[in-house]
């Protein structure tokens, strides 16, 4: 080959290489330009996924396409700041947070909640668990937790605390009696008691009774009854009494230990007893003297010792009366009509119901309670009385009867009643029953 031919071939080869380079350069430029144009048409999206922030350029037209492009699969409980149909625009911020499942126990029953929130209150709200201020929640409502944390809810119920005489309604969760009292600031004294076991569980609508117990010392003053001593007195008429020394009760101090439950006394024990003032005994003189009343005509006949001691039986009295009546002289009309003494002044005055009797009445001995023999002294004026109203031995003026002595008693003579002695049976019968005035003269 000649030099001319060789040069021509070299020139053609160079031109071919230059063309290839040129084409390659053009293609590269076109590619770079295309890439630049492609990249320049992308939108910048700031995405926060589970708390991590990143800027991403994308040609995705919607949020849904963008998340798919980023290989982010969303669940129904996840949080996405925009809906899947939202159009992507320049400098857009998209936030995605995957939901977590939390275990919740309500009164021992298990449930769960899917949420992107992480505080206890937000989790329970998502689970639609309604709470009252008395419910017990563990952990605390404002505490932040993770999906491994177990959340417990104890629903409160009403319980009655009977504290002594005071009753109050309180709210409680599943707890013991001891904790219930502590939660409600119910403190127990040394003697107080609870009518339930302290470790017993408190159930809904149950009642916890606290009995308040107190011991007190009670000092009481009482009286000591005085004794009564009787002495015979020959200067007083038989049947009459006179207080020589007035009795007076003593004073005793008694100390008791008193137990009260809820303010009411349930036990009282006598601990000590001490006589502070000794009692003064009462001395009473009892009369033993017997006497005969004055004769109506002003003369006086004293009973002999035999007459004072004589106790005549009804049979003997009848016989004696018969012999006496034979021996006694017959009374004249003038003796029976002896004027009655005028009413004296002074003395205690009152009215009584009066009847009359004779010495020979059925069952009568003729001897009065004070020892007067009426059969041997038919002219005496003697009345039977109730000694609690008219003392035996008293001198008495009786309206329509005159001056007499209260010398007899009778089973039917009680209160304001008297019985007038009359020697003649017909006079006694004709007297009947009358209201008369009497005066006690001594």
TrEMBL record:
Question: Which segments cross the bilayer?
Answer: 20-38
**InterPro entries according to UniProt:** 3D_dom, DUF348, G5_dom, Resuscitation_pf_RpfB, RlpA-like_sf, TonB_box_CS
Query: Locations of Low complexity compositional bias?
Result: 299-319
SMART domains with a match to the protein in the record: G5
Can you tell which superkingdom this protein's organism belongs to?
A: Bacteria
Q: Which UniProt keywords apply?
A: Membrane, Signal, Transmembrane, Transmembrane helix
Q: Where do the record's region annotations for Disordered lie?
A: 296-326
Enumerate the Gene3D superfamilies for this protein: Resuscitation-promoting factor rpfb (2.20.230.10), RlpA-like domain (2.40.40.10)
Q: Which Pfam families does this entry report, sorted A to Z?
A: 3D, DUF348, G5
Give all residue intervals belonging to the G5 domain: 210-290
Protein name per Swiss-Prot or TrEMBL = G5 domain-containing protein
Q: Which organism is it from?
A: Planococcus faecalis
């Amino acid at each position: 080959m000649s030099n001319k031919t060789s040069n021509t071939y070299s020139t053609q080869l160079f031109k071919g290489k230059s063309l290839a380079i040129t084409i390659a350069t053009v293609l590269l430029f076109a590619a770079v330009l295309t890439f630049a144009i492609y990249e320049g048409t992308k939108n910048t999206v700031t995405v926060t996924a589970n708390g991590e922030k990143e800027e991403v350029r994308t040609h995705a037209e919607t949020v849904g396409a963008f998340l798919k492009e980023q290989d982010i699969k969303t669940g129904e409980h996840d949080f996405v700041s925009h809906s899947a149909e939202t159009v992507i625009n320049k400098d857009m911020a998209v936030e995605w947070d995957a939901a977590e499942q939390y275990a919740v126990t309500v009164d021992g029953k298990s449930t769960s909640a899917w949420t992107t929130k992480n505080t206890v209150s937000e989790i329970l709200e998502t689970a639609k668990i309604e709470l009252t201020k008395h419910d017990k929640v563990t952990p605390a409502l404002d505490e932040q937790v993770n999906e491994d944390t177990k959340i417990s809810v104890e629903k409160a119920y009403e319980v009655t605390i009977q504290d002594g005489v005071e009753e109050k309604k309180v709210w409680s969760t599943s707890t013991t009696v001891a904790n219930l009292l502590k939660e409600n600031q119910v403190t127990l004294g040394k003697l107080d008691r609870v009518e339930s076991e302290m470790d017993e569980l408190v159930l809904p609508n149950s009642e916890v009774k606290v009995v308040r117990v107190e011991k007190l010392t009670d000092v009481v003053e009482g009286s000591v009854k005085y004794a009564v001593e009787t002495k015979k007195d020959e200067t007083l008429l038989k049947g009459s009494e006179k207080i020589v020394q007035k009795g007076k009760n003593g004073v005793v101090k008694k100390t008791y230990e008193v137990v009260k439950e809820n303010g009411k006394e349930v036990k009282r024990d006598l601990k000590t007893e001490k006589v502070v003032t000794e009692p003064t005994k009462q001395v009473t003189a009892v009369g033993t003297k017997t006497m005969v009343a004055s004769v109506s005509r002003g003369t006086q006949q004293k009973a002999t010792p035999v007459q004072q001691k004589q106790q005549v039986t009804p049979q003997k009295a009848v016989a004696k009366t018969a012999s006496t009546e034979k021996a006694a002289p017959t009374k004249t009309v003038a003796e029976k009509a002896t004027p009655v003494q005028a009413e004296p002044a002074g003395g205690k005055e009152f009215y009584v119901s009066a009847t009359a009797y004779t010495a020979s009445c059925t069952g009568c001995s003729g001897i009065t309670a004070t020892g007067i023999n009426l059969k041997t002294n038919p002219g005496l004026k003697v009345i039977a009385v109730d000694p609690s109203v008219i003392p035996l031995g008293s001198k008495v003026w009786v309206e329509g009867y005159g001056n007499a002595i209260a010398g007899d008693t009778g089973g039917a003579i009680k209160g304001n009643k008297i019985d007038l002695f009359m020697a003649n049976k017909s006079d006694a019968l004709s007297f009947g029953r009358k209201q008369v005035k009497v005066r006690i003269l001594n």
